[in-house]
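W.,

You were right to be curious about this one. When I first looked at the sequence I had no strong expectations either way, so I just let the prediction run and decided to look at it fresh. Below is the sequence, 849 residues in total, followed by the output.
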Amino acid sequence: MADVGEVLMSVLSTIRVPRPGDRVHKDECALSFSSPESEGGLYVCMNSFLGFGSQYVDRHHARTGQRAYLHFTRTRKAQKEDDNNSSSGDPPKKKPTRLAIGIEGGFDVEQDQYEEDVKVVIFPDRQQVTSEDLATMPDVVKERVSLSMAGFMSADSVSHALQVQQWDGEVRQESRHAVDLKQLDNGLKIPPSGWRCEVCDLQENLWMNLTDGKVFCGRRYFDGTGGNNHALLHFQQTGFPLAVKLGTITPDGADVYSYDEDDMVLNPKLPEHLSHFGIDMMTMQKTEHTMTELEIAVNQRVGEWEVIQESGTSLRPLSGSGLTGMKNLGNSCYLNSVMQVLFTVPDFQTKYVSNIQKIFDEAPSDPTQDFKTQVAKLGYGLLSGEYSKPAPDPGDDNGTAEPRGDQVGIAPRMFKALIGRGHAEFSTNRQQDAQEFLLHFINMVERNCRSGANPSEAFRFLVEERIVCQQSHKAKYTQRVDYILQLPVPMDQATNTEELQEAERRREEADSGPTPTVRAKIPFSACMAALSEPEVLSDFWSSAVQAKTTATKTTRFASFPDHLVIQIKKFTFGLDWVPKKLDVSIDVPDTLDLGDLRATGQQPGEELLPETAPPPLMTPDVEVKGILGSYGNEEDDSLYSPLLSPVLDDSTVSQLCEMGFPLEACRKAVYYTGNTGIDAAMNWVMGHMDDPDFSAPLVLPGCSSAPGTTPTESLSEEHLATIVSMGFSRDQASKALRATSNVLDRAVDWIFSHLDDLESMEVSEGGRSAAESEGSREPPPGPRVRDGPGKYELFAFISHMGTSTMCGHYVCHIKKDHQWVIFNDQKVCASEKPPKDLGYLYFYRRVTE
């Protein structure tokens, strides 16, 4: 065997020193979930800085010829003393006092629990070189390798850089109302104690309005505790924006909430505002939990079984194939729940797990950025059982403690980073809507499966909408693709109305303390009836009568998918447009028969509405000259020109924008509803929110792009190459970029929302598409959907706990071998009482007879 110093000298040119901006993967294998804590540690290539577990490092060496690797291992430090015992010389752990991570008083990131070791390993003989060995080697070798090792140890790993290690949830902004707040001279003086809500006499969770000094109770929490919303109702009645939580006032400050800004805020003039009502901050003592302390308590409890509806039941931990937990990376429970369910679907197992070796063999040089590789890696990690092992007790250095339900599990850091890259929400550590993430992931699967099997077809189905003009009795049929059936919740159909009224009366009469939670019980049949009943369209433009009239719209299934996803529309808006969650119990059945909802198409003897569009909205002072218009040309045979822009009702556009919708979406809503008012525009927005081009600029009929889009000659060659690499022609890529002002992300969204049009663009030798040169052509084929009987059985559901999709916690229940299993991040247990009536997303599979 050659001398190790000579070997190092021969590979010295391949050894790099990490520079700022280099992606150093020292926490996770690119092809598995091996880590420095795993058996065998992690091998990091000293040239590309990609990490590989012991089972994949030889593959990388064989494919690349790279020989020098850093072998990185972490060993958990023994913790022989109790956390609260300082006899070891270390100070005891302190309870968090600040809603923060990685800073004084916040949650500890626990980076000091491991001892780290790193050495150089030369392949294929796996010769090892330690730091001590380097001291005896030539200076040129010693210097380069030492710098590389030092740079590796000091570099932030990719996962570290992607996570917010120092996060402060208490950073509050100064309220815009604080400085100029008007206070009423009503002579009211607030005593230092003995407060009660002026409406319900509640004695806790009390808030004093800083304008008029009125004291009311706070918001009611999702579990029925808290207040009765009287402070919020007072703001809605008076518009007085700021309130202070009584019991939190100390010389250092207090909790101040701005109802107008809907957030906790800073009030620099708080002493003055309190003094107006006779309160001296310097003499006040804290008697109530601050909002930060309440949030910390929730964060500390979020992983406990008490927050799950099966509390009080002894749950048996499970492990093995298909029973692998997933670590919560910081509000990633929505991702964990969705991916656990998806990889119980055979289509996803076959596409990614059964073909994993082929996917790995075809992976690019950097597999961490390859969608198929990372999805296959995640699927194998969940299904193989390799990581489904009980986690040892942190205080047991031998790892022989009794299992507590937690698993070692997998931490999907690379997957989360890749799937969320470029997305305004999924790239953050904020909580997200599981339904929105499911659609986002399906969209990415669609993009990456243009050739070969597409597992998202398991969920794809066609919806038929039948609109009947009530004046002419003629009908119009349209079809659209969908992946989720959204089920409305008719609250007026509750079967326990008297019980709900009695519970509300008790809450209003209660002096203090929480009252038992009573949920509205809604029959599942009532939800289905609300879905299937005709919807009245009051401002429908009928092409038969050439005017606005009333119509009815009926929605039915044009096809039934292999797997049906049902979303219970629990999240809605109140009259004040404040998001709220409907606390309901729905008797969701184990089996479904949707055969009665099968679309029948055009009825015998039924006449169809003429295919005539509403008259275009034009500026009244511009003359239209012929079909080309004043500014038309032969290549752009458009009725519209820069001067022929549509006249949109600015007030309706403004109202929609004030509700938080994107400007371009608001303009399209007003345009496509013909300036018929806010109700019609709002209905259009709610019906198109999931469209990929929802926020894209308004493209007028007959135009290849919106005003101001990019001409062909200025298109980015890099963007063109990126889209062409996804399987599209150059003409198709150019059309997408022109339609989206040369913005790559928007162009990709646009191209996938116009596949039917693009599929017909057969490129001719002259460079122009055949579609442009032919006067007529066959209509493009419809989307590929599966169909079969509409009979289904429930196999999984995802539940949400919290007041909003933007907070709280997600868990999922999956039926495996006739046994319900609960997946709560790293906890995987046999479910004794699956709360099927409280789910948010339900997953059914077709029953084959």
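Here's what jumped out at me. Residues 798 and 812 are 4 Å apart (CA to CA). And, maybe more interesting for your project: The chain has a mean pLDDT of 79.

Coffee later to discuss?

I.
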